[in-house]
Amino acid sequence: WDETHFGKMGSYYINRTFFFDVHPPLGKMLIGLAGYLSGYDGTFPFQKPGDRYEHHNYMGMRGFCAFLGSCLVPFAYLTVLELSKSLPAALLTAFILIFDTGCITLSQYILLDPILMFFLMGAVLSMVKCNTCADRPFSTSWWFWLSLTGVNLAGAMGVKFVGLFVVLLVGLNTIYDLWDLLGNLSLSLVVFGKHLLARVLCLIVLPLALYTAIFAVHFAVLNKSGPGDGFFSSAFQSQLIGNNLHNVSVPE
Q: For the chain, how long is the longest CA-to-CA vector?
């Protein structure tokens, strides 16, 4: 059922048809992009679950989701390896995920779940990697992992609002780090201020900027009238090509 739902939204992006959905747009945008790059023309109706795709090229969208789902295995492996420093523990984690039928099932269809889990686990891995660089703050690797954490937070929030939970996790980890730094009497307040500013830039400003940019792209791409028009104001509808109010002169 969900493949029918999100596959249709991928088609909307390819056809630039405006629609409304409860989830933020990033996941559907990526599905639409994967379909567009793999030769899908956005003409499959997605009317009901189980309809045959026949000549429509759907494999790019499914393949994209499957690829992101398969990335969960190395992400989990690297995260556990960093946390435990135990190769057997990391390998066990990877094998558990490899043979998890739920994970395999979720990853083989056109769904938001593998995209969401990719960003969720990517954020956790980036956070853990950044923590391991704590002994060399402001180094290239430290900035890289801190910035990548912010990018993954924006990705998780941009796919589904349940991404807020990983934002909470990273936030608590950051508060713990800053509290620890504040209690370090060998650090000056200027250095602590630099630590605070770096985290504000990478974990608040950067994710918010990317999250806003996702919506900017969403509204720029979907410029034709569609099933989501009625959720928005008359002024907004007048900007959509094909809408009854398009370019109509209406008093302010």
A: 70
